[in-house]
Amino acid sequence: MGEIGYDVIIHAGEEQNVKKIHVHSNILCARSQYFCTAFSNEWAEKRDGKFIFRKPNISPQLFNIILRFIYCGNIELKNLQGPDVLKLLIAVDELSIHSLISHIQEFLIEHQTEFLHQNPTEVLETVYQHETFTGLWDFCLENICKEPKILFNSENFSSLKAPLFELLLKRDDLNINEIEIWENLLKWCFAQQNNIQDDPTKWNKEDITIPNMKHKDNLPPPRKPKLDSTLIESKHIPLFSSWIDKKESCYYDSKNNPYEFKLLYRPSRNGVGAKTFHKNCDSKGATIWVAKIKNSTQLIGGYNPLDWDMVSYWKTVADSSYLTLQTQKIFLLQKQDTLMDKIMLFIVIMLMVQLWVIYTVIKIIGVILIVVWENLYPNIGIPEYFTIEDYEVFQIIKK
Hints:
Strand content: 15-25%
Structural class: alpha+beta
Organism: Rhizophagus clarus
Number of strands: 11
Shape: extended
InterPro entries: BACK (IPR011705), BTB-POZ/Galectin-3-binding (IPR051481), BTB/POZ_dom (IPR000210), SKP1/BTB/POZ_sf (IPR011333), TLDc_dom (IPR006571)
Order of helices and strands: EEHHEEHHHHHHHHHHHEHHEEHEEHEE
Keywords: Membrane, Transmembrane, Transmembrane helix
Distance between the termini: 46 Å
Protein name: BTB domain-containing protein
Radius of gyration: 30 Å
Number of helices: 17
Helix content: 25-40%
Number of domains: 3
Largest sheet: 7 strands, antiparallel
């Protein structure tokens, strides 16, 4: 980056795209251990007193960006496309410029999300080969686990390397049904064996025989979902979070959801009774409860922004105006309904939420009969009489 006093000639790029760049070894060594090692090696190429450094795998454009950072301490990425930013990240990792690695990863995550989603296979395989790309690795895995279709519906899914695919299949938080995993596994396997026809009825004995391998009778244990629930799924969490913050139903998604939902209590797991309930749920702050209506696909639930213990509750009500028209919510939804947001309504009555706890006192052999007074809340389709099959209480934790 200067013609005066230079002692290094870098040949960046390959074939017709090679460019000579004149730089100074002392500046390069001050910024990168890679260059220190390269120039101290007795096998380093020198000509006329100058080091000759060849990097055909780094384009002149990207090398100039790196050198600008080495000399001036600044870097401009906004004019680069996603593939070039990824190549730049690989280059700075190879050159051991550690201060740039995290910066470029953050830029990719914040400004090149579309590129990462459109090229999941290539990005995963690239990141998998570089131990320093932990931020990008975590981001890609988390997003693919939340939305597996990003990978499974991508054009190059079938070219995914086996170790990576196996790693994904072993994750408990892969948000996809087992039958879909099986279908995608078959699709991937067929792509690896071009000589096998898609139609199983046309397979011969050789197609279905794996030499020197015995079948296994023992099956691995089922995956443990990240959300500990038998009633709701991970896709419901952003919806509930949006309601909690009094936003539109689609305000949050799996990427920007600000809350974690920690299961505190489930009668079928923890035992029935008010004492057990309060042992698990008191003094935990805001909670949301979800219940399954017996002989129905409907779920009923509510949000309680206060502690469950009655002393704290009445103290809060007496000492402040925290109990407002919008702080409590009750909802009804179809367990399999994808348009649940249409039936969410706000409710004023904290009494309704507290009554639900009182009724747990008289719960006998897992069944509660709850009488819902229609004059306490707008009509959202909750049956006048119903029986609770099971319910869950989740602590709402701000991330």
